[in-house]
Design goal:
By secondary structure, the chain is an alpha+beta fold. 38% of the residues lie in helices and 16% in strands. The chain has one domain: 2-Layer Sandwich (Nucleotidyltransferase, domain 5), CATH 3.30.420.100. β2 (38-46) and β3 form a beta hairpin. The chain is globular, with a radius of gyration of 16 Å. The N and C termini lie far apart (47 Å).
Length: 167
């Protein structure tokens, strides 16, 4: 029982939320942030045992032409959008059923117009059914990276088109 309290104190697990998610019997898309990357996983649960069907790390964007000078920004808003877009494409290839998954952010604070909602917009634009208010998504200029010190918008479109092509 001590470990449950310890994980809650360390802000790693919210057990009330986890039980509700597991009782839903729907697949989940788990989104996590690390110090350097964004991680997304498509998870199905059976009797409280999680099975990862597909996973994407924002480091994968380097394979799609993410510029080396922007390597440090693999957890930015454009990276979050493209990670969500890539995750959505992987999910649609893996699963034939169009089932609206539950999005699980864990202990990440979901503030409107931040990385979490950029990730959701990427999922939605890739064809995954996600329930979310359109007002919560970041502006198009921020998603494309025009707000960054170096304008990222032309690279953004190149990376997105490569993901769409499946290269």
């Amino acid at each position: 029982m001590k470990t449950l309290k310890r994980r809650r104190k360390e802000q790693k697990t919210d057990y009330h939320k986890r039980i509700k998610l597991l009782k839903g019997n729907l697949p989940r898309i788990v989104f996590r942030k690390t110090n350097n990357y964004l991680i997304a996983q498509y998870v199905k649960s059976d009797e409280a045992k999680d099975k990862v069907e597909a996973g994407v790390n924002s480091k994968k964007l380097l394979d799609y032409g993410w510029p080396k000078e922007f390597k440090g920004s693999l957890k930015s808003i454009p990276a979050a959008y493209l990670t969500g877009f890539l995750m959505g494409k992987k999910i649609s290839v893996k699963t034939s059923k169009k089932m609206a998954p539950i999005v699980d952010f864990g202990m990440i604070r979901s503030i409107h117009k931040n990385k979490v909602f950029a990730f959701l917009k990427g999922l939605k634009d890739s064809g995954i059914e996600v329930k979310c208010d359109e007002k919560a998504f970041p502006e198009e200029d921020r998603i494309k990276g025009k707000h960054l010190k170096k304008d990222f918008s032309k690279h953004f479109q190149e990376v997105k088109s490569k993901i769409e092509a499946g290269k």
